[in-house]
Write a structure and sequence with these properties.
Layout (H helix, E strand, L loop, with lengths): L1 H20 L5 H15 L6 H30 L5 E4 L7 E5 L3 H12 L4 E5 L9 H4 L4 E4 L7 H7 L3 E4 L15 E4 L8 E3 L5 H9 L11 E4 L3 H5 L2 H9 L5 E7 L8 H9 L4 E6 L13 E2 L2 E2 L1 E3 L6 H15 L9 E6 L3 H12 L6 E3 L8 H11 L2 E2 L3 H8 L1
Parallel strand pairs: 2-3, 2-5, 3-4, 5-6, 6-7, 9-10, 9-14, 10-13, 14-15, 15-16
Antiparallel strand pairs: 1-8, 11-12
Helix pairs in contact: 1-2, 1-3, 1-12, 3-12
């Protein structure tokens, strides 16, 4: 349980860092981090029930932190709107920005446009395309690759410079190490680091590299579903639910990993009936966001609300649906939650959902490292937390 708290505040710290990049801070949230560090690293609390309550408190603090980061993003870059994003390359020089930092992406775009250099997002920066003050840049060229773990292959194949803006960067292969830079808190052995936001060195290197080809991607992705965008069709959603044309909403997201077991989530998405809707977020979306889900009378069946921190967008949409349907318990809505499990942000998000009263969450592909048999029994009994089994079996139980 102490490890759980440490993992969770790692995720909260990442969100607070990115909010701080944009000038948004909250002293009360930072005080909570100090409290958890004192409680755990100095071994002053061995009370299991007390640590469990602290975990729920952590979930509450993470909700507040995600709201702060959402406020920072929208206050700086405008509210996202649904946006189609190409996945190919344009003729010309290129820079790829990976990670989570909209601030880093914004600065790279701003500086690179003066030199007619195209900029591509990778992984968790896909949702940046939905923000008005990001997509205004004519040199924002598309998204390359999928989840974080494909970067060593993708970055080797594409002769562009790369900027790693946050966690989820991997030790680079030698064939692209000389065109990789880290920024912010990130750092890699043998890779140049940029303090601040002057990316002139990256731009100069990009000028010396071969042009990327004009190449159409395999698919066009859609992202940028803000709270306002979804609630603009809330009456239609209510009408479709009451008419039995939308039977259930599935929230499928989280932090993906290269584990073969995570193929579960694509198979799950492929098996979903046509009268269901999927809300997705974080890099887990790349398991299935290339599938053509279509729509139900104009309501998209796949709703990508953003990065892992944009879980708050999904929460606010669900809270609005609770009000729309006149229910007080989130579990009275026809919604099922599936959370991919990999790193610390997923810990914080899980406890946020548990704090909000969500029950019956399915997690996978494996039991988190900090969960022993006693803790798993407690989570199962108290919160009805479940492990994924097989897609068809889990769907049969739900539907």
């Amino acid at each position: 349980l102490q490890d759980n708290l440490i993992f969770g505040i790692k995720g909260i710290s990442a969100y607070l860092y990115h909010a701080g990049e944009l000038g948004y801070r909250d002293g009360n949230l930072e005080k909570f981090l100090a409290k958890i560090l004192y409680t755990t690293l100095t071994n002053v609390n061995f009370d299991a029930d007390g640590l469990l309550q602290l975990a729920l408190d952590m979930g509450k603090v993470n909700v507040e932190t995600m709201r702060l980061l959402k406020k920072a993003h929208i206050g700086t870059y405008g509210e996202p709107a649904p946006t189609e994003v190409p996945t190919g390359t344009k003729k010309g020089k290129g820079i790829i920005v990976t990670g989570h930092s909209l601030k880093v992406l914004d600065e790279v775009l701003k500086q690179a446009q003066k030199e007619d250099i195209n900029v591509y997002t990778h992984s968790e920066l896909l949702p940046a395309h939905g923000y008005p003050k990001i997509k205004k840049y004519g040199n924002l060229a598309g998204n390359i690759g999928k989840a974080w773990y494909d970067q060593r292959k993708v970055f080797s194949e594409i002769p562009a410079c790369i900027v790693g803006s946050s966690n989820c960067v991997l030790i680079p292969k030698d064939d692209y190490k000389d065109r990789f830079w880290t920024a912010g808190v990130t750092g890699l052995p043998g890779v140049k680091h940029i303090d601040g936001y002057d990316f002139s060195e990256v731009i100069e290197k990009a000028k010396t590299l071969p042009d990327l080809p004009e190449q159409i991607g395999d698919t066009v992705l859609t992202t940028g579903f803000s709270v306002s965008a979804v609630l603009s069709v809330k009456e239609k959603i209510k009408e479709l639910v009451e008419a039995g044309k939308i039977k259930r909403i599935f929230v499928i997201g989280g932090c993906d990993s290269p584990a073969k077991r995570n193929e579960y989530f694509r198979r799950l998405a492929e098996l979903l009936p046509k009268d269901t809707i999927v809300i997705t977020l974080a890099c887990g979306k790349f398991r299935f966001n290339d599938i053509s889900f279509g729509d139900i009378e104009g309501v998209p069946r796949l709703i990508d609300v953003g990065q892992c921190n944009d879980t708050i967008v999904g929460i606010e949409i669900i809270e609005a649906l609770m009000e729309l349907f006149g229910v007080e318990d989130i579990n009275q809505l026809p919604i099922s939650f599936f959370l991919m499990w990999m790193e610390q942000k997923a810990v914080a998000v899980l406890w946020s959902l548990l704090y909000l009263g969500v029950r019956g969450i399915r997690i996978g592909p494996i039991i988190p490292a900090w969960v022993n048999e006693d803790i798993l029994n407690a989570l199962t009994t108290k919160f009805d937390l479940r492990l994924i089994t097989e897609p068809d079996a889990d769907l049969k139980e739900i539907l």
